Amino acid sequence: MEGGVTEGEKNRWFIGYLFSNLAGGIISPLIPLFVVVYLGLSVFYVGITTSIVSLASIPALIAWGNVSDSIKKRKIFILIGFVGSFAALIPISLAVNLTVYLFIQITFQILAMASVPVSTLIIMENVEKSKWPGVMSRFNLIASLGTLIGLFVGTILLEFVGSSGKFLVFLYELASFVYLIAALFTFLFVPEPGKVLSRKNLERIHSVRIVERIRFFPSTIIHFVGIGKGAGKLKTDMWAYLFCTCLLMTAFQLYFVPFPVYIIEKLHGTSFTVFVMYLLNSFFGTIAYRFTGRVVQKFGIKRVLAGALSTRVGLFSAMSVVPFIMFIHLNFLYFALAFYGVMGGLWGFIGISEVSYISRIAEEHTKGKAIGYYNSLNGLGQIIGGVSSGVIAEIYGYGVDFVIALLLVVAGSALIIKVMRNTD
């Protein structure tokens, strides 16, 4: 292995990532719970908070990546991200209103972003190029495993230790110390790369989001808008495809952002229920990731993507009809939890198929730019969907929000399938 790093040391790098994602798993369901259960606000503020926090991380992501590339250092930015996350979340008990909570969350996002642009690169810069696919696969799985463990820890604590609104503050504080542990392992075991790679030379490399989240930032992103000097323009068909992925992400967020609040307000769920829901989603997403590559290879990108989207349309249809039914009993709560879990498995096929298709149809000199715009437009769709979902659910109700989401999913699915037919 390049850089004098042994095989054993390679495995030790990932302990820091495991703990950081464990902390991320603990806090991943907390925004809707904190806003509704602890602060006592409505679904409107869940949408606003989710979108503002996500929006704040975009310029931070670009800035940290540029600084890292300029000074040609990696490890220090992972430490800044992990220690910064610890420092930002420690004062969470002071968040007695939405303004303070937003300030803490925005600070957390800005600092956490320091580790995102380098987390994949530092691995690649310490590993022989021939080993990149295997190492990246292990990295993604370990990250997903950390998220699963974090969600499991949060679920168990809520069930057996406490479930009050104040206990949500404790979960944030617990996660902050887990970030500190991640920083310690990073300091001890992550080497500063002996070589520094340029992002514009990594156009064939992309990260994979195994778990579909309400907030897509932070995430492991190599490419963003504006990769490489003098990169060629994207073709019309590529722009049409990217627009479809943005539309689909907007539709998905119309469902997923208010869904935890819907579980609590309409189905009489609890914080424990929401954690179980997220845990199932992450679990099925991780399981699906193990098979997605082989399934895509066997049946083809278009068939897999069309099948996953069609299944989502069917499940979304069922979830869109139910809010208009007067009689909703406990059994439907279990159905809703199963629904959210299956969505995680379907995302594995959708996300990987989308990125794989971009890599397939993009020209050699525009692959990095295309993947960069894919990440950017998905983030934009997530923000638009988050804001819209809160407004629609607050004014017109969850049923209308779900129906609008369904219509957009149907439209986006039909359009993306049509675009894929025209590009082949």
Structural descriptors:
424 residues; mainly alpha; Growth Hormone, Chain: A; 2 domains; disordered N terminus
Structure description:
The chain folds into two domains: 191 residues, Growth Hormone, Chain: A, CATH 1.20.1250.20; 202 residues, MFS general substrate transporter like domains (Growth Hormone, Chain: A, Up-down Bundle), CATH 1.20.1250. Helices cover 75% and strands 0% of the residues. It contains 16 helices and no strands. It is globular, with a radius of gyration of 21 Å. The N terminus is likely disordered.
Short description, anyone?
With 424 residues, this protein is mainly α.
User: Quick one: biggest sheet?
Assistant: none
Helix content: over 70%
Structural class: mainly alpha
Poorly predicted runs are 1-5, 214-224, 226-230
CATH class assignment of the largest domain: Mainly Alpha
Tally of individual helices: 16
Number of strands: 0
User: What integer value in Å does the Rg equal?
Assistant: 21 Å
- How many domains? The number is 2
Shape: globular
The H-and-E topology, N to C, reads as HHHHHHHHHHHHHHHH
Termini separation: 40 Å
CATH architecture of the largest domain: Up-down Bundle
